[in-house]
Design brief:
The chain is mostly helical. Helices cover 57% and strands 0% of the residues. The protein has a domain at 26-150: Invertase/pectin methylesterase inhibitor family protein (Butyryl-CoA Dehydrogenase, subunit A, domain 3, Up-down Bundle). The longest helix has 27 residues, at 89-115. The model has no long low-confidence stretch (mean pLDDT 84).
Length: 185
Amino acid sequence: MSDDNLGNFFRAENFKDKGDQSDSENRKPVKVHGNALFKKAIDILNITQTICDLLPGDDDGEMTKRLMLDNAMIVPGKIRGALVVHEVYSIMMETAVIIKINICQLKTQLWACKTIHSIEEKYLDVLKEEIEAFRMIFIQWVSSFDKKKDLPDEWRLFNDPAEFPDDEEPFDAKGFMENFDPEDE
């Protein structure tokens, strides 16, 4: 453990995108909100780790700790992945749903921390506040997704059903986005 990181916390700057993206690419709302969301997800992960350190070492405490850390660790990775494929609406929406589910499950685990494990509410309130701040950024991020840039989803969750062919042939994505140029945005 180094002296400059006594809590051994995750740091958002350690996960910087090293790609050759232009400034205009990084100024897109989906990227701006996504990067802010990622930083907030790292804050949530660190606070979750701190709360988990307060949990007892018995089976119940270990189960709560595992569930909370699983939920908190999935979110930053999903956000990073979404920032790479930000041009494909249905993939972004799928990722957003997974993020929301994990954050909501993490928030639900706070009940166990308070009721079963008697963690003081003042610690749990810090995480609740961060989750609320995350939710507000999340709303902005999802609002910045471009519905016009998409691939048909054969599961038909996030696409307009009218855009699907009437036949029962599986969708072939080859050539679908040939005319798509991310620089046109």
